[in-house]
Amino acid sequence: MSGLLWPGDERAGPTFGDAAFVSAMLEVETAWLAALVQTGVAPSSLDATRSVGGQPIGGTDLAALSAAAEAGGNPAVAFVSWLREEVGERDAPAARWLHRGLTSQDVVDSAVMLLAKRLQRDVLAEIGRQVEALAALADRHRSTEMVGRTLTQPAVPITFGAKAAAWLQGVLDAADDLGSLSFPAQFGGAAGNRSGVTALGGDPASVAACAAAALGLLERGPWHTDRAPVTRLGAALTGCSAAWGRIANDVLTLSRPEIGELAEPFAVGRGGSSAMPQKTNPVLSVLIRRAALSAPAYLSLLQLAAADAGDERPAGAWHVEWQPLALLARHTLTAASQTSELLAGLHVGAERMSATLDAHRDDVSSEYRSLAGLTGQRGGWAHGDDDALVTAALQRAREWAAHR
Amino acid sequence: MSGLLWPGDERAGPTFGDAAFVSAMLEVETAWLAALVQTGVAPSSLDATRSVGGQPIGGTDLAALSAAAEAGGNPAVAFVSWLREEVGERDAPAARWLHRGLTSQDVVDSAVMLLAKRLQRDVLAEIGRQVEALAALADRHRSTEMVGRTLTQPAVPITFGAKAAAWLQGVLDAADDLGSLSFPAQFGGAAGNRSGVTALGGDPASVAACAAAALGLLERGPWHTDRAPVTRLGAALTGCSAAWGRIANDVLTLSRPEIGELAEPFAVGRGGSSAMPQKTNPVLSVLIRRAALSAPAYLSLLQLAAADAGDERPAGAWHVEWQPLALLARHTLTAASQTSELLAGLHVGAERMSATLDAHRDDVSSEYRSLAGLTGQRGGWAHGDDDALVTAALQRAREWAAHR
Amino acid sequence: MSGLLWPGDERAGPTFGDAAFVSAMLEVETAWLAALVQTGVAPSSLDATRSVGGQPIGGTDLAALSAAAEAGGNPAVAFVSWLREEVGERDAPAARWLHRGLTSQDVVDSAVMLLAKRLQRDVLAEIGRQVEALAALADRHRSTEMVGRTLTQPAVPITFGAKAAAWLQGVLDAADDLGSLSFPAQFGGAAGNRSGVTALGGDPASVAACAAAALGLLERGPWHTDRAPVTRLGAALTGCSAAWGRIANDVLTLSRPEIGELAEPFAVGRGGSSAMPQKTNPVLSVLIRRAALSAPAYLSLLQLAAADAGDERPAGAWHVEWQPLALLARHTLTAASQTSELLAGLHVGAERMSATLDAHRDDVSSEYRSLAGLTGQRGGWAHGDDDALVTAALQRAREWAAHR
Amino acid sequence: MSGLLWPGDERAGPTFGDAAFVSAMLEVETAWLAALVQTGVAPSSLDATRSVGGQPIGGTDLAALSAAAEAGGNPAVAFVSWLREEVGERDAPAARWLHRGLTSQDVVDSAVMLLAKRLQRDVLAEIGRQVEALAALADRHRSTEMVGRTLTQPAVPITFGAKAAAWLQGVLDAADDLGSLSFPAQFGGAAGNRSGVTALGGDPASVAACAAAALGLLERGPWHTDRAPVTRLGAALTGCSAAWGRIANDVLTLSRPEIGELAEPFAVGRGGSSAMPQKTNPVLSVLIRRAALSAPAYLSLLQLAAADAGDERPAGAWHVEWQPLALLARHTLTAASQTSELLAGLHVGAERMSATLDAHRDDVSSEYRSLAGLTGQRGGWAHGDDDALVTAALQRAREWAAHR
Question: How far apart are CA A104 and CA A82, in angstroms?
């Protein structure tokens, strides 16, 4: 994952990167060992936080872990080996008890959910900024009339406020889906029946509840072959991309100079061309649209992985998930940030909107004339319910912001 | 759509078929006209139910409508023309008022939501049957031990009850997503700001609320370019297919004669081969798996349509939706019915399970031996937490059934 | 499959419809029986063409066959039963020998290839019309200057002839891929090793070669689990859709009234709105774009089916193929016809192009100024290599047409 | 891209990695400048190879370039700025002439084709190894009888040689598609009409031909919005993954201990579990299957990008391509290497095959009995045409190897 092939990727920071992934696996192992101790399964003399949790994850180890992952087929097997060795140098009993009762899928799935929960927080923070910007745009432009366009052609007059309100409703729909996700821990053991804890003489439900609580995750029983937590996450992220893509699509169309009703915020050096000095390309919108077009395919892989699950843990389907999920996560956060920036600085050409509306006045009032004839009304100019739609969207935005 | 290329399609009955679609569009037009009358916009002398609602939709008209759809680019334009003519023969004023204030997307989107709501009901009814069958299997086989398999290889002992409980949890997750859907009416007018009702001198929100209530749909404002209602539906249906596919995958593996632990219900003439008289193919599972593998691609088109939305109504993206959604709907209902039948008659080879477990006893107890050594426990045989997992799943199933 | 949910579908005629599919299966069975007779395996007294080939396929039978397909899991098992019964009423020995040595996948795969070959012919015929129209456009507009646009913004001057030539190159690339397909018969028998013919004492390669020749298909050995013939077909069809979609995208942009450089051909009643009397939507382009956006997902199912093949014949993967392939086939032929119509009547607004170019002259000559400074050239106006690109495209078109 | 989330990724080496990408862009710029000099457009005093080509691409620069890519929206804009500065420090005239006549898409597309050509070579080298291994397996096991399985159930006897021959045919089909790709350079200039070279007073076709020849790429005119070179590449890579996936699927099924007919090559430390000491998971096959299941979605993005192309260069569609293509490239090369290793060391359990066949003899001879009755033949045992199929596959393999 790099910004060279996915420009803007740096905006996603460490999200779902290798270091974050390994770090999350470490948190899972630490919480699990602490839970074994706390529930009386492992000796009370062990201190998971000290012996395991403090383990530094360095750059060198990442490359080695990455290379070692193939032999086990997943990131956890090699990680556990490495961690056991590292811990063992300082605390042999802790090393012996490390990972007992878990299987590699427990570690990976729980780590994924930890990262997902943080991603949710970060994306919702961006959405908070977008909701503010959109509400301001909708309110400010309640009376900014423009041509409403359908199937590329002038339809009826609308206000830009109503358009911004429609964008806002889409973003709030996406926010609702993202906000309602829950993030379950995975502690199923070797074959999903928690055989390991039983073998250790512990109560699996108690250990799982204890470890999940420490991680801030939900305990809902094993889900090795029931991938709803992953597919729901993927669907919510894809929904966000679509809501932003829908905005970017409008910016791309309306910032064509022949239309000229919107323009991206200016930033020095952005949107330049390698060939044409005059060019200012709508780069943010281009990159947001790119993410929106890409997300459905990544989601389809998560859905396919769910559909192909089998046995007590699947042979390939699970392995399909990690990369598209990590990419979808990073792309979503990148697009979130780009959309926030786009909306915060969006230029609205109210005069151009008005001029174009005037130029198409005859066309865009044909519905009005045809309907007014029915009721005997005449004269004047058509106004839709734009204002009420803006008010409704602002109301919803306020409620959403109040309950985050 | 036919069973020739999608064997079993007949199980879906009229769902999302052409006749059902046209019929739903008729319901929408009827409810809208009634709402115009009821809110005082259209003359009180009009009787929408009598003049419009009773319109019979015959087979001949369907073919003509289908052929006529291209000119308008969507199913509604030609339908409205046809309907206006039909109604006009008996009630000219009703014909004149028909569809006023609506746009074609209102009719199509609202009709889709009507069909979706009925689909939800039908699929949930099948899931009700599945939940019963799965709960019975899980309960009956609490003590049926078998080999748990991961990545194709023997892992640890589980019970078949626990496996059935895991299947059940997956189905309940899918049921939760499907059950929580809401189905909004679409009454946005030509460009999403309800300009038509305004032009007619009415209050758009009142008319929309009135029409939505008559249709049993939610009123939430226009969503022409915010496709969350469609993508959420698609995601929920795909989740169902995955939950059933995961069961079918296990049946396909475990009904291989070399394993022989499960078998599909027998039905005369089913599973035969055109070449080999002895063959009994696991046809239900094959067809369920087919649906599960297919659904993600259909969903990806709904998500792509959402991502490509633009202007006040999009030029192509919206048009992408109808066919994949209709297919996904029919496939889901077909697979629902096939899964119900599969589960109701599933043969469980408890003795074979036991024999295979005995044969692999050494292998599948390696985790136990390795863990028991840690705690000093010895001897006996490993038991996971299977029983508790069954109990938890049965509890959830009872609660789900009680609150449907 | 109907035009209600896929407006324009009627253009595809019987292509890959149920009747065509059954008819193709009948051709396969007839050719196979004839080959058994011709190679001396079946009695020389049998007359396949008379006893089997003339079997009428009526509407009633289609519905029954469709409903019966589920039991066998594919369209062939029920078809063979039905055919054997029908044939048996008049010619018991022919009925006894029918389908001997074949498996259901042989019948379905060979029938698919027969239909594919006819589809190739029909699509190439449409492409022939498109190539003519595009060549004429490119040639006629060698000197029609316009603004070249990149990332939505004015870039440098181009000619519309060069744009049409670029469209033409894309169509020719698609035509090359489609034209180079080969269509193999499938005669692998029950498990792909032609065991049936051996059991009958025949030489499998001879019988297969004889039957393939009669069908006009290639004989290349069994390919039950090697789906290259299907995925290549899907990729070629998707490539066609993309080439046409790329044209439609330009028409959609350039027919926005604010740009107004292109317009779809006028047809009475086409492009109308159900709400706005003035509207003329670019319906052909909308529907072509719809097909282009949809095709990749259908193709992905064919590719997935190939990836999931296993054993000697797969349990679900094969069953995934038929519907997306049939849809992709019909959509491609529909879009082919729509594109031919679009190009034949495309309105080119040369004056508007010229005016817009003048209005942006300063912007679009920035590259020229920047480069001219390097070489000391000054004054005049930038001309690209448009003319040579047109000439090259016309040359390629002529060669393509000559070698079809 | 890392092996942590895509275990085995290290096998792909530098393929389509950031360093390789930048290095390829450098080659393109060097070849272009050299061509400008060689064709007399740029001063003969410039030495492109010395002044530009030798530019070292260090790690620090990669991170900076990656971060800088967002402003231009693609990897080339920032790269050209950086390169111009670097070159300018030593050779100001070369820096001034650098990239003249090109646009960023020229650099990226040509660089992609350079990398693709090398990928083709590397994958074909792996396929060469596979073809050898498969030919040896097919030949060695001409007489190794086993149960042929269809839809998971025993069908008729086959030989393992015939199964290996079927695998081989699939790999050769994929090799044919991959081997027939051509790799065109992209030198279209700002808007695809080579306006830059014209502005410089040069002959665009000559400069392009000269630069393409230096890069070992084909010159076929601009293809900015005609993405056939990219989609064909994607389809060929996906075809390879499917051919290997089909093999891995069989290994996964047949290495279940209940079947036990195949086993992956043993490697110390491979296939271990983090929970169960006894486990040897078929990791290579799991990871190959993962790649096969994933590829269609990545391909679908390349196809979507092609379908969404518009204007003279697209606003988002092109940007979609780079990441899925790079991933598909790396995944394909990784899976190629894993498949080579799998096939080179595959364990074939001929005795177990024979024993299972004996156990199912009655079932798998039902076709034979049913057919033998037709011809009056009796007794003996059914043999398919396995030997001839092996011979044909070996013949094709020899021809393929001879003509590489």
Answer: 13
Is the CB of residue D333 less than 8 Å from the CB of residue D12?
yes
Distance CA B151, CA B159 (A): 18
What residues of chain C lie within 8 A of the CB of B271, using their CB?
A: 71-73
Tens of pLDDT, residues D319-347: 999 999 999 999 999 999 999 999 999 99
> Does the pLDDT value for residue A379 go beyond 50?
no
Dihedral angle of Cα D332, D335, D341, D347, to the nearest 10 degrees: -140
Q: Where are the beta strands (DSSP E) in D20-78?
A: none
**Cα distance between residue C247 and residue C231, in whole Å:** 25
Instruction: Kindly list the distances between the CA atom of residue B311 and the CA atoms of A152, A166, A248, B315, in Å, as whole numbers in the listed order.
Output: 7, 11, 11, 8
- Alpha-helical segments (H) within C56-103: 59-72, 75-90, 92-97
CATH topology of domain D1-102+187-219: Fumarase C; Chain B, domain 1 (1.10.275)
Res B59 pLDDT > 70? no
> What pLDDT, on a 0 to 100 scale, did the predictor assign at position A2?
81
> Best of D1, D5, D238 to disrupt the A interface by mutation (most A CBs within 10 Å)?
D5
Q: Contact at 8 Å (CB) between B272 and B280?
A: yes
Residue A379: strand, helix, or coil:
coil
The phi, psi pair for A218, rounded to 5°, reads: -80, 145
Nearest partner of C173 among A228, A91, D222, judged by Cα:
D222
Q: Cite the beta strand spans of D151-289 per DSSP E.
A: 153-159, 262-263
D270 counts as catalytic = no
At B269 the pLDDT is 87
Q: A150-177: per-residue pLDDT in tens?
A: 999 999 999 999 999 999 999 999 999 9
Residue C268 phi, psi dihedral angles, 5° rounding? -55, 125
Mutant choice from B276, B363, B366 vs D, greatest count of D C-beta within 10 A? B276
Secondary element (H or E) of residue A71: helix A59-72
* Span B151-176, pLDDT tens digits: 999 999 999 999 999 999 999 999 99
Domain locations along chain D: 1-102+187-219, 121-184+223-404
* Closest C-alpha among C274, C334, C269 to residue B108: C274
Mark yes or no for CB contact B7/C99 under 8 Å. Answer: no
Q: Which two tokens stand for residue D245?
A: 């996936």
* B24 alpha carbon, distance to own chain's centre: 18
Whole-prediction pTM: 0.98
Distance of alpha carbon D319 from alpha carbon D105, whole angstroms: 10
Pick B374 or C143 by higher pLDDT. C143
| Closest chain B residue to the Cα of C286, Cα to Cα | B316
E strand or H helix at C330, and its extent?
A: helix C317-344
Give the C-alpha separation, C384 to D199, whole Å. 8
Out of A66, A286, A319, name the one closest to residue D73 (CB): A286
% of chain D surpassing 90 pLDDT: 88
Asked whether the CA dihedral C89, C91, C96, C100 is positive or negative, the reply is negative
Cβ-contact C283, B73 below 8 angstroms: yes
Point out the residue among C18, C107, C316 whose CB comes nearest to the CB of B293: C316
Please give the sequence-ordered ranges of beta strands (E in DSSP) within A153-214, or none if there are none. Answer: 153-159
Tell me the two tokens of residue B354.
Answer: 């036991």
Residue of C nearest to A271 (CA): C151
What is the maximal distance between C-alpha atoms in chain B? 91
A1: pLDDT strictly greater than 70: no
Q: Span D334-361, mean pLDDT? A: 97
CATH of D121-184+223-404, one of 3.40.50.150, 1.20.200.10, 3.40.1500.20, 3.60.15.10: 1.20.200.10
Contact: B104, C323; criterion CB under 8 Å: no
- Residue C258: pLDDT band (50, 70, 90) is very high
The pLDDT of residue C33 is 98
